[in-house]
What does this fold into?
Amino acid sequence: MTEDEQKQAAAEKAVEYIEDGMIVGLGTGSTAAKMVDLVGAKVAAGLKITGVPTSEATAEKARNLGIPVVGLDEVNVIDLTIDGTDEVDPEGRLSKGGGGAHLREKIVAALSDRMIVIAEAKKKVAQLGAFKLPVEVIRFAAPALKPRLEALGCTPTLRLKKDGTSFTTDEGNYIYDCDFGKIDEPEDLALTLSIMPGVVEHGLFIGFADLVLIGNDEGVEVIEIETKQAE
Ligand code: 5RP
It folds into this structure.
């Protein structure tokens, strides 16, 4: 299967977990977009769900497909969130934020009873870190944070748009893509980043995933994450 077909297969498996009446967190990225398309088709066929989008892009896509969407002012608990990832390790720890939406994605995941992660085979890794870890920072703090991130042992690169100007998130912040190499202690790094003034959110999702669906040449690998640990 091509990577695109693997993403599609994982998305198709994930939507099987959606039940009538659920409040569903809708992830961001190309794999999540396939899931949103499938949810749209189910809604058109009569499924009643309410979506909580994790980005403006997903919100617009969902609305265009006729999926009712709400913000966090209208829901307290989300039944199920389905989202993509940039990496997932054997313990279900994720590196996310390639699409720059990890701040809202993490908030929605944290409010969810269950998180299903969908990805193509290459995202399943033995150890996190080959993908540069996105760290969302307040614009004011960005110049001061660069050397502080370097002091943690990474090479941070300010994310740019294709036109060369700074990429800004839905919340108006900047992103440093941080090359740490292999991340030996994701929990420690997550905590260190979380308490740095000016860092809004990082892409390490630890203790969020309940189920990981990996599309591969054989079909879809279903990985239950047994031990959910708090970040
Ligand atoms: C966006 C994300 C995405 O889920 C992640 O980047 C994976 O994207 P894709 O499905 O396009 O490979 O975290 O912030």
User: Anything to note?
Assistant: Helices lie at 3-15, 30-44, 56-64, 102-110, 142-150, 186-194.
